[in-house]
Amino acid sequence: MIDYVGVIAIIFFYLVILFVGVWAGRKTDKAKQGIGEQTEEVMLAGRNIGTLVGIFTMTATWVGGAYINGTAEALYNGGLVGCQAPIGYALSLVLGGVLFARKMRDEGYITMLDPFQIKYGQRVGGLMFFPALLGEVFWSAAILSALGATLSVILNINMTVSVIISALIAVFYTFTGGLY
């Protein structure tokens, strides 16, 4: 049986996300006319995200469906003692912000690999790219899996279909809006 309230809520949620993506895309297009490089504009929002928005963005990047599902499972299986990841993640975000953010911003780095590539050369940067790429692929797969499972339960549709729908919408609004 289909949960019609859930269907309406999900459709509304996706429409809001699409609206924000299209709105951000227009903002990006306007900003590109006045601010330098397109890569920085799309990936770093022109380096003009404030502290509060930056904190929310980093939190939203880390605390996705995979994080929430994994934390719930760890708490269920091992109790509070067995669930150390949220504490470690929170500490790493704070320490990373305090110790590295200003230096990376001042130096104009775009990715975490940039300082290593500058110091150790392009070969080391190229080698470090593969583990980073694998981490991003697996993290994205975990998030899409969690989102697909949620959609599958609420809408009573096939898991594969719900993952594909979620991925297409995410790709569309990311390409449209960039990081804004």
Automatic annotation (TrEMBL):
Membrane topology: Multi-pass membrane protein
Protein's cellular compartments: Membrane
Keywords carried by this UniProt record: Glycoprotein, Ion transport, Membrane, Neurotransmitter biosynthesis, Sodium, Sodium transport, Symport, Transmembrane, Transmembrane helix, Transport
Molecular function GO labels: choline:sodium symporter activity
Biological processes per GO annotation: acetylcholine biosynthetic process
Transmembrane domains' residue ranges: 6-24, 45-68, 74-101, 127-147, 153-175
Pfam families noted in UniProt: SSF
UniProt GO cellular component terms: plasma membrane
Family to which the UniProt record says this protein belongs: Belongs to the sodium:solute symporter (SSF) (TC 2.A.21) family.
Protein's name in the database: High-affinity choline transporter 1
